[in-house]
Specification:
This protein is of the alpha+beta class and about 170 residues long. It is built from four helices and nine strands; from the N terminus they run βααββββαβαβββ. The strands form two sheets. It has a six-stranded mixed β-sheet with strand order 1-2-3-5-6-8, sandwiched between helices. A three-stranded mixed β-sheet has the order 4-9-7, with no helix packed on it. The chain is globular and about 45 Å long.
Amino acid sequence: MTLRLRAESPGDHAAIHALTEAAFREAPHSSHTEQFIVDALRSRGELRVSLVAENDGVVIGHVALSPVTISDGSPAWFGLGPISVQPAWQGQGVGTALMQAALDALRQQGARGCVLLGEPGYYGRFGFRAEPGLLLPGVPAEYFQALCLHPPMAQGEVQYSPAFEATA
């Protein structure tokens, strides 16, 4: 495998849509709308970081980062996701490489922190953890996790872009 990470380009949009749909097709806790969320974030101009992973010129992974709003007014917080890897490439380090590159990009942009909804066992190794004072209504607290890049830790209710309600 020759993995190359780079910013998405306009020619990647269809491949990102297809791989995101494929990556979440069998996911039990998915709304199966993740590909539409990425499209909506892009069309709203809210993809602050959008990276692809390529193997031999074929897009096999993608990660999206977009701004979130926190009720305490904390600035420069982002939501990570969706993150997608083609099913045939899952478990081979592609997701890990995308996560590390995404967090590096946030640090370079001076982000204060990042939130995500996902498996604690997976995302904990990148420093994410459930924070009692930070919540996303309607989801189990242990699956909503945060990583503070520059203290203090934000406190309050998190709101994602309306793009996360996209269904088509």
